[in-house]
Amino acid sequence: DRLGIYTYWSLPITKILRPGTVTILNLAGLNDEVQDHVTSHILTRVFKARVSYMRNLEGPKYPFPVVVILEEAHRFAPPKHVRSTLSLGVISRIASEGRKFGVYLVVITQRPSKIDPDVLSQCNSQIILRLVNQSDISAVFGASEVLNAELGKLISILDVGEGIVVGPVTPLPLVIRLRDRVLEYGGADIDLADAWKFNADIDINEFKERVEKILGAKVSQANVLNALPLINTVNDVEIDMKVLRGRVGNVYAEARLGDGSWSCEVCGSTHEPCPHVIALAAKALKDNLLSEKVK
Predict the structure, then answer these.
(1) pLDDT, tens digit, for every residue of 83-96?
(2) β-strands 243-248, 234-240: how paired?
(3) pTM for this structure?
(4) Is residue 219 domain-shared with residue 240, that is, in the same domain?
(5) How many domains does the chain have?
(6) Cβ–Cβ contacts within 10 Å for residue 240, how many?
(7) Consecutive H or E run containing 117
């Protein structure tokens, strides 16, 4: 009641999970305590539903195996002596017992030393990217039975996108290179020079009005601001029969000029133009492909 996040009824587990479907719970913007409560609540319900199904117990059941991927896991499962979280208990139980009930756990973190050792040690297979902090390297060594000194030396000198795979998932340790990321969002550092290339003195309100006129639809200021750093990533712009097309980074977007319709292969046909569509329109204006001009 204090947090205002619980009601007298819960969404059925079958409305949250579906076989062969990825369910994303985006907790961004919530404070840490609320995130902890939501994570604990959802994981507890998922685990109980699988236990009830496997043991034919009373209560909600879910008949399909579940893979739980916990991003920023150190926020929810820190070492017990560091701080206590509500979700640590159920995460620890899933890590230790989940497999026999068909609940599998993937923990993702940039700081393995900030993960509870009991949870980390239950992660039998590991994909290790570059680590430079010695406490993090030591934590990985402590959780793995197959890492040796030779492989350990590689951890701190791996390049971006390179990693070491160890555990039951592979007969022998593997050094891998991940494929290039095809979308512009991700965990990489922002290139300030690229982000600031677009005219920093632009009048946001004027810019917003020009884009709205071209697209024939209202755009939010938040989406406009998110679009600005994308403008310099726009390429392959073309206009045919009043249809503006192009790629924003590697994302395809198009808009029917003036009639208020658009689409984006990432965001879909949202209720208002997304940052990709706005960036595409702005690039066309900037390059004088349209009658208006961004100043």
Answers:
(1) 999 999 999 999 99
(2) antiparallel
(3) 0.65
(4) yes
(5) 3
(6) 8
(7) helix 117-121
